[in-house]
Write a structure and sequence with these properties.
Layout (H helix, E strand, L loop, with lengths): L12 E2 L4 E5 L12 E5 L6 E5 L6 H13 L3 E6 L5 H4 L2 H8 L3 E2 L13 E4 L2 E7 L8 E5 L4 E5 L17 H16 L5 E4 L8 H24 L5 H8 L8 H17 L4
Parallel strand pairs: 4-5, 5-6, 10-11
Antiparallel strand pairs: 1-2, 2-3, 3-4, 7-8, 8-9, 9-10
Helix pairs in contact: 4-5, 6-7
């Protein structure tokens, strides 16, 4: 679950030869250090992909554009990992500023398709459906770097919320197993998350996420068996170890876990 103070060691910047992060100045208990806007481009290319331009913050958008201009390139495509405002609110405005198309899952004729290989001036990006945090969540593999852009599916610090009722725990667990398969095949070794720092060990991180979800589900099951049924009561018992500022988000995850337990009573 998100929460805690910003990480003074994470301010964005160049992560690899194909990926730069422009950190949006919107830190909060739910966004950690702020939203990571990723600028992606093949070395020597003339065009970049911008992933998750962030909230409607004109200063941030100008910073992103200045960063791209500083590389001597142009924005050819905007991708969205999901529709939450801290990632996607500025998409229409960014389109107006750049003229570049915006693509995501669930946006009409620009829908991203599962397994689609998106090619922009030599850069290859593979679309991987990872619903669960939200129903429209996608992650994107950079095959040349064995890196996965995860949006809010996996964070650079802490764990994420299953944003019930749009979010779904069963779908989220399936998505984590999908990522685990990619890490097991060494197709993904690092992660570029939507919030928090670069993840250098993707396999260890997804294993931690799966263990954490199993432990939380066991805790929720035990709370229900003890007679607690209201989500806020379960939060007080199970999420006592996280800051109260994120308890409203924790309640969404609890609702998702309660739904999962109703649908899978013997798991």
């Amino acid at each position: 679950m998100n929460g805690g103070a910003p990480d003074p060691d994470w301010a964005g910047g160049t992560v690899s030869e194909r990926a730069d992060c422009v950190l949006c100045p919107n830190p909060s208990p739910m966004t950690l250090d702020g939203t990571n806007t990723w600028v992606l481009g093949e070395p020597g290319s003339d065009a970049v992909v911008v992933l998750d331009p962030g909230p409607l913050d004109e200063g941030h958008l100008q910073t992103v554009l200045e960063h791209v201009a500083g590389t001597g390139r142009r924005v050819a495509l905007t991708l969205l990992t999901h529709g939450h405002l801290d990632h996607a609110e500025s998409a229409d405005r960014f389109h107006a500023l750049t003229g570049a198309p915006v693509r995501a899952f669930g946006r009409g004729h620009d829908d991203v398709r599962p397994g689609e290989v998106i090619e922009v001036d030599g850069l290859e990006i593979v679309a991987v459906p990872t619903p669960g945090h939200t129903s429209d969540s996608y992650s994107f593999v950079l095959p040349a770097e064995n890196a996965l852009l995860t949006g809010d599916t996996v964070l650079g610090r802490g764990t994420t919320v299953v944003a019930w009722p749009d979010g779904n725990l069963e779908a989220y667990l399936d998505s984590l197993h999908r990522i685990e398969t990619l890490t097991g095949a060494r197709e993904v070794t690092t992660m570029l998350p939507g919030h928090g720092p670069f993840v250098s060990d993707a396999a260890a991180t997804v294993s931690f996420y799966l263990r954490h979800r199993a432990e939380r589900l066991d805790q929720v099951r035990a709370a229900v068996e003890s007679g607690l049924h209201a989500a806020h009561e379960v939060v007080e018992r199970v999420y006592a170890d996280v800051p109260r500022s994120v308890w409203p988000a924790a309640e969404l995850s609890v609702q998702a876990q309660l739904q999962y337990l109703r649908e899978h009573p013997t798991d």
